[in-house]
Write a structure and sequence with these properties.
Number of helices: 9
Distance between the termini: 30 Å
Structural class: alpha/beta
Largest sheet: 5 strands, parallel
Number of strands: 13
Order of helices and strands: HEEEHEHEHEEHEEEHEHEHEH
Radius of gyration: 18 Å
Helix content: 25-40%
Strand order of the largest sheet: 5-4-1-12-13
Length: 256
């Protein structure tokens, strides 16, 4: 096994996942993972560039940053790459008017987006809003379109809160894909475009960066496909058996 110094030779930037790496969300705002506040501070004191790359889609970027600062992290909104702002750019560039199946906590991110007469659906981690009625409405919007467009903010299977594992947006995206016979466009990890955007904002090349996350597919697999190195922490959603199953399934899909 190569020494850590050799493995990380040439690294100029670090991308950090947030949920499951820095903190576990939950009632009262969540709790920081032991040692993570100090780890972020040490990284920021180093010569490395640091950026936070998250699929968080229940909270606006401003709310998320405020929460993390309250927990003791040195972080600013401009250092966070998140899927909702990225999706808004895509919607405006392509003239898309979304039907939003999202959590109320992130809806403010779409305040400047035209949602009248929808010609696409944007789905995010809607939490308790994933009711039959709301899923069926999204299905109906898509089925009425000549060229249905489904944009998913991330594609995670599950994540960890303080109360336990929680079903993520990917399961609901899959349901709409199956019902409508379409494939969603993913804005967020593991999308290569999402990682490339974070790298561009950080000002480093893929081979100069390392991604640190708890998701073997979204964080590790996605980063490696972009030419980055990646490390998986043993916190958050990390599960040994689940990792093996998910990674085997992931690489079988991307190699087709």
């Amino acid at each position: 096994m190569a020494a850590w110094g050799e493995r990380l030779a040439g690294v100029r930037g670090v991308l950090l996942d947030i949920s499951g790496v820095l903190y576990d969300s939950g009632e009262g705002g969540g709790v920081p993972i032991a040692g993570s506040v100090e780890a972020v501070a040490r990284l920021k004191r180093s010569r490395l560039k640091v950026r936070f790359c998250t699929n968080e889609s229940q909270k606006s970027r401003g709310h998320l940053v405020g929460l993390l600062r309250h927990l003791g992290y040195d972080i600013s909104e401009g250092e966070v790459t998140a899927p909702a702002p990225a999706a808004c750019l895509i919607l405006r560039e392509r003239g898309l008017r979304p039907h939003l199946l999202v959590h109320d906590g992130v809806r403010s991110e779409f305040a400047q987006v035209d949602t009248s007469n929808p010609n696409c659906v944007v789905i995010a981690d809607a939490g308790e809003s994933f009711s039959y009625q709301n899923m069926n409405k999204a299905f109906q919007v898509l089925m009425e379109l000549e060229n249905p467009v489904l944009i998913s903010l991330g594609r995670g299977r599950y994540y960890k809160e303080t109360s336990g594992l929680m079903l993520d947006v990917g399961a609901y995206t899959k349901a709409l894909e199956y019902a409508c016979g379409i494939e969603a466009e993913v804005v967020g990890k593991p999308s290569p475009e999402f990682f490339k955007s974070a790298l561009q904002q950080m000002g480093v090349e893929a081979h100069q960066a390392v991604m640190i996350g708890d998701d073997i597919v979204g964080d590790v697999g996605g980063a490696q496909r972009c030419g980055m190195r990646a490390l998986q922490v043993r916190t958050g959603k990390f599960r040994i058996v689940a990792n093996l199953i998910e990674m085997r399934s992931y690489w079988s899909r991307v190699s087709l």
